[in-house]
Amino acid sequence: MSISFRNARSVRILGVASASAALALGVAGNAFACNITEFSAVAKCDGEKGVISVTDKDPSGTPATVTVYLGDKVIGTQDVVGSREGVTVDFPEDWAPNTTYRVHVKAGKLVDDYVKPDVLTGGEACKTETTPSPTPTPPASETPKPSEPAATPTPSASEPEESATPTPSASESTPGAPADSVPTPAGGSSNLAETGASSNTGMIAGIAAALVVVGGGAVFFGLRRRGASNNS
């Protein structure tokens, strides 16, 4: 049975349409399939704690496994199911400033790759150590503080209080002219100078002179009376 030209043309048009539909469906399927470009990662701070946040914006919702690396060390692994709005998973990490982390994504047979670019942390850590402020030293006083006077001991009741003014002893001589400088009267006794009674020397000398005069007068009158008796 031969195919007419009209039938052949119809079959050709139907084939082109089918191929176009298949191509469109393939492109649409690829557009909705999970892709590594739909994942992003960043280092940030959650209060005073550091985290590595990975966001999955896969509209197809393909389950994926996310692993964060620091060099060859595994920081953590989590499963995520993305959405058009995006689903974020956080990996707690006390990261240091200017440090590079790698994020790997495995989603079935569609994705098995690292997120580009790598995660680079900031220049300052999330938690900064506070340095205690130095205690100010009080300035030295320019004027020295006077020392407190020593307490005067209180004499006990059993000890006699010493006299404030010393009492001179009887043997001490009264200050004045030395005894050797007082002149000794003629005929006087040397005991007067030794006793220090220089104030009575004049009186004693006057009495002695009076006695000499009285004695001389008595002798004179006695001799005169005896001569008168002899003459009679």
Protein model, in words:
With 232 residues, the protein is of the alpha+beta class. It has a domain of 84 residues: Sandwich (Immunoglobulin-like), CATH 2.60.40.10. The radius of gyration is 71 Å and the shape is rod-shaped.
- The CATH architecture of the domain at 37-120 would be Sandwich
Percent in strands: 15-25%
Largest sheet: 5 strands, antiparallel
Using the CA coordinates, give the radius of gyration.
71 Å
Residue stretches low in confidence (pLDDT < 50, at least 5 long) are 24-30, 168-190
User: Class by helix and strand content?
Assistant: alpha+beta
For the terminal residues, how far apart are their CA atoms?
248 Å
CATH homology superfamily of the domain at 37-120: Immunoglobulins
CATH topology of the domain at 37-120: Immunoglobulin-like
Rounded mean pLDDT is: 74
Q: What's the structural blueprint in terms of helices and strands?
A:
Blueprint: H1 5-32, E1 39-46, E2 49-56, E3 63-70, E4 73-81, E5 87-92, E6 100-107, E7 111-114, E8 119-120, H2 191-195, H3 201-231
Antiparallel strand pairs: 1-2, 2-5, 3-4, 3-6, 6-7, 6-8
